[in-house]
Design a protein that fits this description.
It is built from 21 helices and eight strands. The strands form two sheets. The protein has a five-stranded antiparallel sheet with strand order 1-3-5-4-2, with helices on both faces. With about 575 residues, the chain is of the alpha+beta class.
Protein backbone atom coordinates (compact mmCIF):
# COMPACT_ATOMS: atom_id res chain seq x y z
CA UNK A 1 0.00 0.00 0.00
CA UNK A 2 1.66 3.18 -1.22
CA UNK A 3 0.66 6.66 0.02
CA UNK A 4 1.75 9.64 -2.08
CA UNK A 5 1.45 12.92 -0.18
CA UNK A 6 1.26 16.32 -1.91
CA UNK A 7 0.47 19.54 -0.03
CA UNK A 8 1.14 22.30 -2.53
CA UNK A 9 -2.36 23.02 -3.87
CA UNK A 10 -4.24 26.30 -3.63
CA UNK A 11 -7.64 25.45 -5.24
CA UNK A 12 -9.74 22.82 -3.54
CA UNK A 13 -12.43 22.94 -6.19
CA UNK A 14 -9.90 22.45 -8.98
CA UNK A 15 -8.63 19.23 -7.43
CA UNK A 16 -12.19 18.00 -6.84
CA UNK A 17 -13.14 18.67 -10.46
CA UNK A 18 -10.19 16.52 -11.54
CA UNK A 19 -10.96 13.67 -9.12
CA UNK A 20 -14.63 13.58 -10.10
CA UNK A 21 -13.90 14.07 -13.78
CA UNK A 22 -13.02 11.44 -16.41
CA UNK A 23 -9.27 11.71 -15.85
CA UNK A 24 -6.67 12.50 -18.46
CA UNK A 25 -7.20 9.20 -20.27
CA UNK A 26 -10.78 8.32 -19.22
CA UNK A 27 -9.31 6.20 -16.41
CA UNK A 28 -11.67 7.53 -13.70
CA UNK A 29 -14.59 5.10 -13.39
CA UNK A 30 -17.58 5.79 -11.11
CA UNK A 31 -16.00 8.55 -8.96
CA UNK A 32 -17.80 8.81 -5.62
CA UNK A 33 -17.33 9.84 -2.00
CA UNK A 34 -16.25 7.08 0.38
CA UNK A 35 -16.31 9.05 3.65
CA UNK A 36 -15.48 12.47 5.06
CA UNK A 37 -14.48 14.26 8.27
CA UNK A 38 -18.09 14.31 9.53
CA UNK A 39 -19.61 11.53 7.42
CA UNK A 40 -22.17 13.94 5.98
CA UNK A 41 -20.37 15.72 3.14
CA UNK A 42 -22.22 15.97 -0.19
CA UNK A 43 -21.18 13.48 -2.89
CA UNK A 44 -21.03 15.06 -6.36
CA UNK A 45 -20.73 11.59 -7.88
CA UNK A 46 -24.22 10.66 -6.65
CA UNK A 47 -25.90 14.11 -6.87
CA UNK A 48 -28.51 15.12 -9.44
CA UNK A 49 -26.86 18.54 -9.80
CA UNK A 50 -23.14 17.75 -10.12
CA UNK A 51 -21.95 21.36 -10.47
CA UNK A 52 -23.79 22.54 -7.36
CA UNK A 53 -22.71 19.52 -5.31
CA UNK A 54 -19.02 19.92 -6.15
CA UNK A 55 -19.14 23.62 -5.26
CA UNK A 56 -20.85 22.77 -1.96
CA UNK A 57 -18.20 20.13 -1.14
CA UNK A 58 -15.37 22.56 -1.91
CA UNK A 59 -17.01 25.29 0.20
CA UNK A 60 -17.51 22.87 3.09
CA UNK A 61 -13.84 21.83 3.08
CA UNK A 62 -12.63 25.43 2.66
CA UNK A 63 -14.83 26.91 5.43
CA UNK A 64 -12.10 26.99 8.18
CA UNK A 65 -9.69 28.60 5.68
CA UNK A 66 -12.17 31.25 4.62
CA UNK A 67 -13.00 31.99 8.27
CA UNK A 68 -9.48 33.37 8.77
CA UNK A 69 -8.57 36.94 7.86
CA UNK A 70 -7.25 37.10 4.30
CA UNK A 71 -3.69 37.86 5.47
CA UNK A 72 -3.67 34.81 7.79
CA UNK A 73 -4.74 32.23 5.21
CA UNK A 74 -2.02 29.83 4.04
CA UNK A 75 -1.02 30.36 0.41
CA UNK A 76 -1.01 26.61 -0.26
CA UNK A 77 -3.82 25.17 1.81
CA UNK A 78 -4.80 21.98 -0.08
CA UNK A 79 -3.39 18.66 1.22
CA UNK A 80 -3.83 15.68 -1.10
CA UNK A 81 -2.67 12.10 -0.90
CA UNK A 82 -3.47 9.00 -2.90
CA UNK A 83 -3.29 5.60 -1.20
CA UNK A 84 -2.83 2.75 -3.64
CA UNK A 85 -2.92 -1.00 -3.04
CA UNK A 86 -0.05 -3.06 -4.45
CA UNK A 87 -0.60 -4.95 -7.73
CA UNK A 88 -2.10 -8.36 -6.96
CA UNK A 89 -3.75 -7.33 -3.71
CA UNK A 90 -7.45 -8.10 -3.24
CA UNK A 91 -10.01 -5.37 -3.87
CA UNK A 92 -10.83 -3.60 -0.61
CA UNK A 93 -14.43 -2.81 0.29
CA UNK A 94 -15.78 0.71 0.78
CA UNK A 95 -15.71 0.25 4.55
CA UNK A 96 -12.10 -0.96 4.46
CA UNK A 97 -11.00 2.02 2.35
CA UNK A 98 -12.88 4.36 4.72
CA UNK A 99 -10.99 2.87 7.68
CA UNK A 100 -7.68 3.20 5.80
CA UNK A 101 -8.42 6.88 5.15
CA UNK A 102 -9.29 7.59 8.80
CA UNK A 103 -6.07 5.96 9.96
CA UNK A 104 -3.97 7.89 7.44
CA UNK A 105 -5.40 11.32 8.34
CA UNK A 106 -4.95 10.49 12.04
CA UNK A 107 -1.36 9.29 11.62
CA UNK A 108 -0.34 12.30 9.52
CA UNK A 109 -1.80 14.86 11.95
CA UNK A 110 -4.49 16.06 9.52
CA UNK A 111 -7.24 14.85 11.85
CA UNK A 112 -5.56 13.22 14.89
CA UNK A 113 -8.80 12.54 16.81
CA UNK A 114 -8.94 12.10 20.57
CA UNK A 115 -10.50 15.53 21.02
CA UNK A 116 -7.64 17.35 19.28
CA UNK A 117 -8.52 19.94 16.64
CA UNK A 118 -8.47 18.51 13.11
CA UNK A 119 -8.81 19.59 9.51
CA UNK A 120 -11.72 18.92 7.19
CA UNK A 121 -11.22 16.14 4.67
CA UNK A 122 -13.02 13.94 2.17
CA UNK A 123 -12.18 10.67 0.41
CA UNK A 124 -12.86 10.08 -3.30
CA UNK A 125 -12.65 6.69 -5.00
CA UNK A 126 -12.70 6.31 -8.78
CA UNK A 127 -10.87 2.98 -9.20
CA UNK A 128 -10.74 -0.37 -7.40
CA UNK A 129 -7.13 -0.13 -6.30
CA UNK A 130 -6.79 3.34 -4.74
CA UNK A 131 -8.41 6.32 -3.03
CA UNK A 132 -7.68 10.06 -2.89
CA UNK A 133 -7.84 12.03 0.35
CA UNK A 134 -8.44 15.79 0.04
CA UNK A 135 -7.99 18.05 3.07
CA UNK A 136 -7.59 21.75 3.80
CA UNK A 137 -4.71 22.71 6.09
CA UNK A 138 -6.56 24.80 8.67
CA UNK A 139 -8.12 23.16 11.74
CA UNK A 140 -11.63 23.91 13.00
CA UNK A 141 -10.18 26.27 15.63
CA UNK A 142 -8.14 28.19 13.05
CA UNK A 143 -4.80 26.59 13.98
CA UNK A 144 -2.47 24.77 11.62
CA UNK A 145 -2.22 20.97 11.84
CA UNK A 146 0.91 19.21 13.02
CA UNK A 147 1.60 17.54 9.65
CA UNK A 148 5.40 17.61 9.84
CA UNK A 149 6.86 14.71 7.82
CA UNK A 150 3.35 13.58 6.97
CA UNK A 151 4.69 11.47 4.10
CA UNK A 152 6.84 9.32 6.38
CA UNK A 153 4.06 9.05 8.93
CA UNK A 154 1.66 7.88 6.22
CA UNK A 155 4.19 5.28 5.07
CA UNK A 156 4.60 3.92 8.60
CA UNK A 157 0.83 3.63 9.10
CA UNK A 158 0.41 1.87 5.74
CA UNK A 159 2.95 -0.75 6.80
CA UNK A 160 0.74 -1.56 9.80
CA UNK A 161 -2.42 -1.59 7.67
CA UNK A 162 -0.83 -4.02 5.20
CA UNK A 163 -0.05 -6.50 7.95
CA UNK A 164 -3.48 -6.23 9.56
CA UNK A 165 -5.41 -6.61 6.28
CA UNK A 166 -3.15 -9.32 4.85
CA UNK A 167 -1.96 -7.16 1.95
CA UNK A 168 1.42 -7.08 0.23
CA UNK A 169 3.97 -5.54 2.59
CA UNK A 170 5.74 -2.86 0.56
CA UNK A 171 9.40 -2.18 1.25
CA UNK A 172 9.80 0.99 3.26
CA UNK A 173 11.61 3.86 1.56
CA UNK A 174 14.34 6.05 3.02
CA UNK A 175 13.97 9.21 0.94
CA UNK A 176 16.88 8.44 -1.41
CA UNK A 177 14.79 7.21 -4.36
CA UNK A 178 14.54 9.22 -7.55
CA UNK A 179 11.32 11.17 -7.98
CA UNK A 180 8.67 9.21 -9.84
CA UNK A 181 7.10 10.62 -13.00
CA UNK A 182 3.85 12.48 -12.40
CA UNK A 183 0.57 11.25 -13.85
CA UNK A 184 0.71 14.07 -16.39
CA UNK A 185 4.18 12.98 -17.50
CA UNK A 186 3.05 9.37 -17.89
CA UNK A 187 -0.02 10.28 -19.93
CA UNK A 188 2.06 12.58 -22.11
CA UNK A 189 4.47 9.71 -22.84
CA UNK A 190 1.54 7.39 -23.65
CA UNK A 191 0.01 9.91 -26.06
CA UNK A 192 3.31 10.19 -27.90
CA UNK A 193 3.95 6.46 -27.97
CA UNK A 194 7.06 6.63 -25.77
CA UNK A 195 8.12 3.69 -23.62
CA UNK A 196 9.54 6.07 -20.99
CA UNK A 197 8.57 9.49 -19.72
CA UNK A 198 10.87 12.40 -20.50
CA UNK A 199 12.05 12.39 -16.88
CA UNK A 200 13.02 8.71 -17.04
CA UNK A 201 14.73 9.03 -20.43
CA UNK A 202 16.72 12.04 -19.24
CA UNK A 203 17.72 10.29 -16.01
CA UNK A 204 19.05 7.30 -17.93
CA UNK A 205 20.92 9.48 -20.44
CA UNK A 206 22.52 11.61 -17.71
CA UNK A 207 23.54 8.48 -15.77
CA UNK A 208 25.30 7.12 -18.83
CA UNK A 209 27.03 10.45 -19.39
CA UNK A 210 28.34 10.35 -15.82
CA UNK A 211 29.66 6.78 -16.11
CA UNK A 212 33.44 6.94 -16.03
CA UNK A 213 33.53 10.70 -16.77
CA UNK A 214 36.50 12.49 -15.20
CA UNK A 215 35.51 16.16 -15.23
CA UNK A 216 32.74 18.64 -16.02
CA UNK A 217 33.89 19.28 -19.57
CA UNK A 218 33.73 15.61 -20.47
CA UNK A 219 30.35 15.21 -18.74
CA UNK A 220 28.73 18.09 -20.60
CA UNK A 221 30.32 17.02 -23.89
CA UNK A 222 28.66 13.61 -23.46
CA UNK A 223 25.28 15.23 -22.72
CA UNK A 224 25.56 17.32 -25.89
CA UNK A 225 26.65 14.28 -27.93
CA UNK A 226 23.54 12.45 -26.68
CA UNK A 227 21.41 15.21 -28.23
CA UNK A 228 20.14 16.84 -25.03
CA UNK A 229 19.45 20.53 -24.62
CA UNK A 230 21.53 21.92 -21.75
CA UNK A 231 21.16 24.99 -19.57
CA UNK A 232 23.88 25.85 -17.09
CA UNK A 233 23.25 27.93 -13.97
CA UNK A 234 26.13 30.24 -13.12
CA UNK A 235 26.90 32.52 -10.19
CA UNK A 236 27.73 36.21 -10.82
CA UNK A 237 31.38 35.21 -10.42
CA UNK A 238 31.01 32.84 -13.37
CA UNK A 239 31.24 29.68 -11.24
CA UNK A 240 28.98 26.88 -12.40
CA UNK A 241 26.25 26.11 -9.84
CA UNK A 242 24.03 23.59 -11.60
CA UNK A 243 22.49 22.43 -14.84
CA UNK A 244 19.21 21.50 -16.50
CA UNK A 245 18.55 19.20 -19.44
CA UNK A 246 15.67 18.67 -21.84
CA UNK A 247 14.76 16.44 -24.76
CA UNK A 248 14.60 18.28 -28.07
CA UNK A 249 11.05 17.10 -28.81
CA UNK A 250 9.60 17.39 -25.28
CA UNK A 251 7.80 20.74 -25.20
CA UNK A 252 5.06 22.44 -23.20
CA UNK A 253 1.90 24.14 -24.43
CA UNK A 254 3.95 27.22 -25.34
CA UNK A 255 6.26 25.08 -27.52
CA UNK A 256 9.14 25.59 -25.10
CA UNK A 257 11.50 22.75 -24.07
CA UNK A 258 10.66 21.17 -20.69
CA UNK A 259 13.85 21.29 -18.63
CA UNK A 260 14.66 19.13 -15.61
CA UNK A 261 17.39 20.00 -13.10
CA UNK A 262 19.82 17.19 -12.37
CA UNK A 263 18.70 17.06 -8.73
CA UNK A 264 15.08 16.48 -9.83
CA UNK A 265 16.13 13.51 -11.97
CA UNK A 266 17.85 11.74 -9.07
CA UNK A 267 19.47 12.89 -5.81
CA UNK A 268 22.95 11.85 -6.96
CA UNK A 269 22.68 13.60 -10.35
CA UNK A 270 22.91 17.15 -8.99
CA UNK A 271 26.14 18.86 -10.02
CA UNK A 272 27.61 18.92 -6.46
CA UNK A 273 26.96 15.18 -6.05
CA UNK A 274 28.45 14.41 -9.47
CA UNK A 275 31.54 16.43 -8.55
CA UNK A 276 32.02 14.17 -5.53
CA UNK A 277 32.78 11.30 -7.91
CA UNK A 278 35.80 13.22 -9.19
CA UNK A 279 37.02 14.39 -5.78
CA UNK A 280 39.11 11.27 -5.08
CA UNK A 281 41.10 11.42 -8.31
CA UNK A 282 44.78 12.35 -8.37
CA UNK A 283 45.51 15.52 -10.33
CA UNK A 284 48.00 13.79 -12.60
CA UNK A 285 46.04 10.58 -13.12
CA UNK A 286 44.33 11.46 -16.41
CA UNK A 287 47.48 11.09 -18.46
CA UNK A 288 48.14 7.68 -16.90
CA UNK A 289 44.57 6.63 -17.64
CA UNK A 290 44.91 7.60 -21.30
CA UNK A 291 48.19 5.78 -21.58
CA UNK A 292 46.71 2.58 -20.18
CA UNK A 293 43.42 2.77 -22.10
CA UNK A 294 42.23 -0.61 -23.39
CA UNK A 295 42.90 -1.46 -27.01
CA UNK A 296 39.38 -2.78 -27.57
CA UNK A 297 36.14 -3.99 -25.99
CA UNK A 298 37.53 -7.44 -25.07
CA UNK A 299 40.42 -5.99 -23.07
CA UNK A 300 38.06 -3.46 -21.45
CA UNK A 301 35.79 -6.30 -20.36
CA UNK A 302 38.68 -8.25 -18.87
CA UNK A 303 39.72 -5.20 -16.86
CA UNK A 304 36.15 -4.60 -15.74
CA UNK A 305 35.84 -8.24 -14.62
CA UNK A 306 39.01 -7.91 -12.52
CA UNK A 307 37.85 -4.60 -11.02
CA UNK A 308 34.42 -6.03 -10.24
CA UNK A 309 35.99 -8.96 -8.44
CA UNK A 310 38.14 -6.72 -6.26
CA UNK A 311 35.05 -4.62 -5.51
CA UNK A 312 33.22 -7.71 -4.24
CA UNK A 313 35.93 -8.21 -1.64
CA UNK A 314 35.70 -4.57 -0.52
CA UNK A 315 31.90 -4.70 -0.20
CA UNK A 316 32.19 -7.93 1.80
CA UNK A 317 34.99 -6.82 4.11
CA UNK A 318 35.54 -3.05 3.81
CA UNK A 319 34.01 -0.16 5.74
CA UNK A 320 30.43 0.95 5.09
CA UNK A 321 31.64 4.16 3.44
CA UNK A 322 33.90 2.22 1.09
CA UNK A 323 31.13 -0.26 0.29
CA UNK A 324 28.71 2.57 -0.51
CA UNK A 325 31.24 4.07 -2.93
CA UNK A 326 31.81 0.77 -4.70
CA UNK A 327 28.08 0.08 -4.97
CA UNK A 328 27.52 3.51 -6.51
CA UNK A 329 30.37 2.89 -8.96
CA UNK A 330 28.88 -0.51 -9.81
CA UNK A 331 25.93 1.40 -11.26
CA UNK A 332 28.33 3.18 -13.61
CA UNK A 333 29.76 -0.16 -14.78
CA UNK A 334 26.25 -1.45 -15.50
CA UNK A 335 25.41 1.71 -17.45
CA UNK A 336 28.62 1.37 -19.45
CA UNK A 337 27.95 -2.31 -20.18
CA UNK A 338 24.41 -1.56 -21.33
CA UNK A 339 25.71 1.17 -23.62
CA UNK A 340 28.44 -0.90 -25.27
CA UNK A 341 27.21 -4.50 -25.43
CA UNK A 342 25.79 -6.36 -28.41
CA UNK A 343 22.09 -6.35 -29.25
CA UNK A 344 21.26 -9.79 -27.87
CA UNK A 345 22.31 -8.78 -24.33
CA UNK A 346 21.54 -5.05 -24.46
CA UNK A 347 17.92 -5.11 -23.29
CA UNK A 348 18.59 -7.23 -20.21
CA UNK A 349 21.67 -5.15 -19.35
CA UNK A 350 19.67 -1.93 -19.69
CA UNK A 351 16.96 -3.37 -17.45
CA UNK A 352 19.64 -4.40 -14.94
CA UNK A 353 21.11 -0.88 -14.96
CA UNK A 354 17.68 0.69 -14.49
CA UNK A 355 16.85 -1.62 -11.59
CA UNK A 356 20.22 -1.17 -9.90
CA UNK A 357 19.92 2.62 -10.05
CA UNK A 358 17.77 2.42 -6.91
CA UNK A 359 20.38 0.25 -5.18
CA UNK A 360 23.19 2.72 -5.88
CA UNK A 361 21.99 5.25 -3.26
CA UNK A 362 21.46 5.10 0.48
CA UNK A 363 22.00 7.31 3.52
CA UNK A 364 25.47 5.81 4.01
CA UNK A 365 27.84 8.50 2.74
CA UNK A 366 30.12 7.13 0.04
CA UNK A 367 33.85 7.63 0.64
CA UNK A 368 34.97 8.53 -2.85
CA UNK A 369 38.44 7.78 -4.19
CA UNK A 370 38.48 4.13 -3.13
CA UNK A 371 36.19 3.34 -6.06
CA UNK A 372 38.57 4.74 -8.66
CA UNK A 373 39.37 1.31 -10.18
CA UNK A 374 35.69 0.51 -10.69
CA UNK A 375 34.93 3.95 -12.17
CA UNK A 376 37.96 3.52 -14.44
CA UNK A 377 36.51 0.17 -15.51
CA UNK A 378 33.31 1.97 -16.58
CA UNK A 379 35.44 4.45 -18.51
CA UNK A 380 37.39 1.64 -20.14
CA UNK A 381 34.17 -0.02 -21.28
CA UNK A 382 32.95 3.18 -22.93
CA UNK A 383 36.24 4.08 -24.60
CA UNK A 384 36.96 0.45 -25.50
CA UNK A 385 34.06 0.75 -27.92
CA UNK A 386 30.99 -1.38 -28.66
CA UNK A 387 31.49 -5.13 -28.40
CA UNK A 388 30.56 -7.66 -31.04
CA UNK A 389 28.38 -10.54 -29.94
CA UNK A 390 30.91 -13.17 -31.02
CA UNK A 391 34.54 -14.14 -30.66
CA UNK A 392 36.62 -12.72 -27.81
CA UNK A 393 34.26 -9.75 -27.50
CA UNK A 394 31.27 -12.02 -26.92
CA UNK A 395 33.10 -14.41 -24.58
CA UNK A 396 34.56 -11.62 -22.42
CA UNK A 397 31.06 -10.12 -22.25
CA UNK A 398 29.89 -13.37 -20.64
CA UNK A 399 32.91 -13.24 -18.32
CA UNK A 400 32.27 -9.69 -17.12
CA UNK A 401 28.51 -10.22 -16.72
CA UNK A 402 29.27 -13.24 -14.53
CA UNK A 403 31.64 -11.16 -12.36
CA UNK A 404 29.31 -8.15 -12.19
CA UNK A 405 26.42 -10.42 -11.17
CA UNK A 406 28.42 -11.41 -8.07
CA UNK A 407 29.11 -7.72 -7.44
CA UNK A 408 25.38 -6.93 -7.60
CA UNK A 409 24.56 -9.87 -5.30
CA UNK A 410 27.18 -8.63 -2.83
CA UNK A 411 25.46 -5.22 -2.94
CA UNK A 412 22.10 -6.89 -2.24
CA UNK A 413 23.57 -8.69 0.78
CA UNK A 414 25.15 -5.47 2.08
CA UNK A 415 21.89 -3.54 1.75
CA UNK A 416 20.07 -6.42 3.43
CA UNK A 417 22.39 -6.26 6.43
CA UNK A 418 21.71 -2.50 6.68
CA UNK A 419 17.93 -2.99 6.43
CA UNK A 420 17.82 -1.01 3.17
CA UNK A 421 14.77 -2.91 1.92
CA UNK A 422 14.15 -1.06 -1.34
CA UNK A 423 17.81 -1.08 -2.32
CA UNK A 424 18.20 -4.78 -1.55
CA UNK A 425 15.11 -5.60 -3.62
CA UNK A 426 16.40 -3.46 -6.51
CA UNK A 427 19.78 -5.20 -6.46
CA UNK A 428 18.12 -8.62 -6.49
CA UNK A 429 16.00 -7.55 -9.46
CA UNK A 430 19.14 -6.35 -11.27
CA UNK A 431 20.78 -9.72 -10.58
CA UNK A 432 17.85 -11.50 -12.27
CA UNK A 433 18.32 -9.39 -15.39
CA UNK A 434 22.05 -10.09 -15.32
CA UNK A 435 21.40 -13.83 -15.13
CA UNK A 436 19.23 -13.56 -18.24
CA UNK A 437 21.89 -11.48 -20.01
CA UNK A 438 24.53 -14.03 -19.03
CA UNK A 439 22.53 -16.89 -20.54
CA UNK A 440 22.43 -15.04 -23.86
CA UNK A 441 26.09 -14.01 -23.78
CA UNK A 442 27.47 -17.36 -22.58
CA UNK A 443 25.49 -19.66 -24.83
CA UNK A 444 28.04 -19.88 -27.67
CA UNK A 445 31.36 -19.67 -25.76
CA UNK A 446 30.21 -22.25 -23.20
CA UNK A 447 28.99 -24.55 -25.99
CA UNK A 448 32.47 -24.38 -27.53
CA UNK A 449 34.08 -25.23 -24.20
CA UNK A 450 31.72 -28.13 -23.53
CA UNK A 451 32.48 -29.50 -26.99
CA UNK A 452 36.22 -29.25 -26.26
CA UNK A 453 35.66 -31.00 -22.93
CA UNK A 454 33.88 -33.91 -24.59
CA UNK A 455 36.84 -34.33 -26.96
CA UNK A 456 39.36 -34.66 -24.15
CA UNK A 457 40.92 -38.08 -23.90
CA UNK A 458 39.68 -40.23 -21.02
CA UNK A 459 43.03 -40.07 -19.16
CA UNK A 460 43.03 -36.27 -19.46
CA UNK A 461 39.42 -36.04 -18.23
CA UNK A 462 40.25 -38.24 -15.25
CA UNK A 463 43.29 -36.05 -14.46
CA UNK A 464 41.12 -32.91 -14.39
CA UNK A 465 38.67 -34.67 -12.07
CA UNK A 466 41.57 -35.51 -9.76
CA UNK A 467 42.62 -31.83 -9.77
CA UNK A 468 39.03 -30.88 -8.92
CA UNK A 469 38.77 -33.30 -6.00
CA UNK A 470 42.17 -32.22 -4.74
CA UNK A 471 41.33 -28.50 -4.80
CA UNK A 472 37.68 -28.49 -3.72
CA UNK A 473 36.70 -31.87 -2.26
CA UNK A 474 33.52 -30.47 -0.71
CA UNK A 475 32.19 -29.27 -4.12
CA UNK A 476 33.70 -31.86 -6.43
CA UNK A 477 30.75 -34.26 -6.75
CA UNK A 478 28.28 -31.41 -7.28
CA UNK A 479 30.44 -29.91 -10.03
CA UNK A 480 31.03 -33.26 -11.73
CA UNK A 481 27.25 -33.70 -12.01
CA UNK A 482 26.68 -30.30 -13.61
CA UNK A 483 26.28 -29.89 -17.39
CA UNK A 484 29.07 -27.31 -17.27
CA UNK A 485 31.68 -29.78 -15.97
CA UNK A 486 32.86 -30.50 -19.53
CA UNK A 487 33.58 -26.79 -20.04
CA UNK A 488 35.45 -26.64 -16.73
CA UNK A 489 37.47 -29.75 -17.65
CA UNK A 490 38.47 -28.13 -20.95
CA UNK A 491 39.46 -24.96 -19.09
CA UNK A 492 41.56 -26.94 -16.59
CA UNK A 493 43.29 -28.61 -19.54
CA UNK A 494 43.96 -25.16 -21.06
CA UNK A 495 45.28 -23.95 -17.68
CA UNK A 496 47.65 -26.91 -17.51
CA UNK A 497 48.76 -26.46 -21.11
CA UNK A 498 49.58 -22.83 -20.34
CA UNK A 499 52.02 -23.91 -17.62
CA UNK A 500 49.92 -23.42 -14.48
CA UNK A 501 49.14 -25.86 -11.68
CA UNK A 502 45.40 -26.56 -12.19
CA UNK A 503 44.68 -27.58 -8.59
CA UNK A 504 46.49 -24.54 -7.15
CA UNK A 505 44.74 -22.08 -9.46
CA UNK A 506 41.39 -23.79 -8.92
CA UNK A 507 41.76 -23.54 -5.15
CA UNK A 508 42.52 -19.83 -5.52
CA UNK A 509 39.45 -19.34 -7.72
CA UNK A 510 37.20 -21.01 -5.16
CA UNK A 511 38.74 -19.21 -2.16
CA UNK A 512 37.90 -15.75 -3.49
CA UNK A 513 34.25 -15.95 -2.43
CA UNK A 514 31.37 -18.27 -1.63
CA UNK A 515 29.62 -20.04 -4.50
CA UNK A 516 26.24 -20.62 -2.86
CA UNK A 517 24.53 -17.97 -5.03
CA UNK A 518 25.85 -19.42 -8.30
CA UNK A 519 23.34 -21.21 -10.51
CA UNK A 520 26.21 -23.18 -12.08
CA UNK A 521 29.38 -23.48 -10.02
CA UNK A 522 31.28 -24.89 -12.99
CA UNK A 523 30.37 -21.86 -15.17
CA UNK A 524 31.59 -19.46 -12.49
CA UNK A 525 34.88 -21.34 -12.08
CA UNK A 526 35.42 -21.40 -15.86
CA UNK A 527 35.45 -17.59 -16.03
CA UNK A 528 37.46 -17.15 -12.83
CA UNK A 529 40.12 -19.57 -14.10
CA UNK A 530 40.31 -18.08 -17.57
CA UNK A 531 40.75 -14.62 -16.06
CA UNK A 532 43.29 -15.71 -13.43
CA UNK A 533 45.33 -17.68 -15.98
CA UNK A 534 45.02 -14.92 -18.60
CA UNK A 535 43.53 -17.40 -21.09
CA UNK A 536 41.46 -16.26 -24.05
CA UNK A 537 37.79 -16.20 -23.06
CA UNK A 538 36.94 -17.47 -26.55
CA UNK A 539 38.23 -21.04 -26.57
CA UNK A 540 38.31 -21.17 -30.37
CA UNK A 541 41.51 -19.09 -30.10
CA UNK A 542 43.19 -21.93 -28.16
CA UNK A 543 44.91 -25.03 -29.60
CA UNK A 544 42.80 -28.18 -29.47
CA UNK A 545 43.17 -29.92 -26.09
CA UNK A 546 45.64 -32.77 -26.13
CA UNK A 547 47.93 -31.08 -28.67
CA UNK A 548 51.23 -30.40 -26.97
CA UNK A 549 52.47 -26.82 -26.73
CA UNK A 550 56.21 -26.12 -27.24
CA UNK A 551 57.87 -25.27 -23.93
CA UNK A 552 59.16 -21.97 -25.36
CA UNK A 553 55.62 -20.86 -26.14
CA UNK A 554 54.19 -21.55 -22.69
CA UNK A 555 53.45 -18.81 -20.24
CA UNK A 556 55.56 -18.66 -17.07
CA UNK A 557 54.27 -20.91 -14.34
CA UNK A 558 52.35 -19.17 -11.55
CA UNK A 559 54.07 -19.26 -8.15
CA UNK A 560 52.65 -22.07 -6.05
CA UNK A 561 53.00 -20.15 -2.78
CA UNK A 562 50.20 -17.75 -3.76
CA UNK A 563 52.45 -14.68 -4.04
CA UNK A 564 50.85 -12.35 -6.57
CA UNK A 565 49.49 -8.85 -6.80
CA UNK A 566 45.90 -9.84 -6.05
CA UNK A 567 44.88 -9.31 -2.42
CA UNK A 568 44.03 -12.42 -0.48
CA UNK A 569 40.56 -13.00 0.88
CA UNK A 570 40.09 -10.97 4.05
CA UNK A 571 39.60 -13.03 7.17
Amino acid sequence: MIPSVNKSGDRTIGLLYYLYGPGRAEEHVDPHLVTSFDGMAPDPGRADDFATAIKDLAALLDQPVQALPAHARPAKHVWHTSVRAAPGDRTLSEDEWADVARRVVAATGIDPGGGEPGCRWAVVRHADDHIHIVATLVCEDGSRPDDFRSGKRAQAECRLIEQELGLTVVNAGDGTAAKRPTSAERYKAERRGREQTAREELRETVRRAVAGAQNEEEFFDRLAAAGLLIRKRQAPSGDLLGYKVALVDDRNEDDEPVYFAGSTLAPDLSLPRIRERWSGRQEDSSADDRASAPSGPAQARRRAAAAAWQAVLIIDHGSDQQAAAYIAAAGEVLDALAKTSAAHTRKQLRDAARAFERASRSHVRAERGHDRALRQAARDLIYGGPALGRGEDGATTAMVIDMVAFLVIAAAHWHGRKNHAQQAAAARQAAEHLRAAYQSAAQHPMAVLRHRGRRLSQPLQRRQAVHLRQAVPELAEQILAEPGWRALAATLADVEAAGHEPATLLAEAVAHRELDTAESVSDVLVWRLRRLADLPADATAMPEPGISTPQSARRPKRPSNGSNTRPKKAR
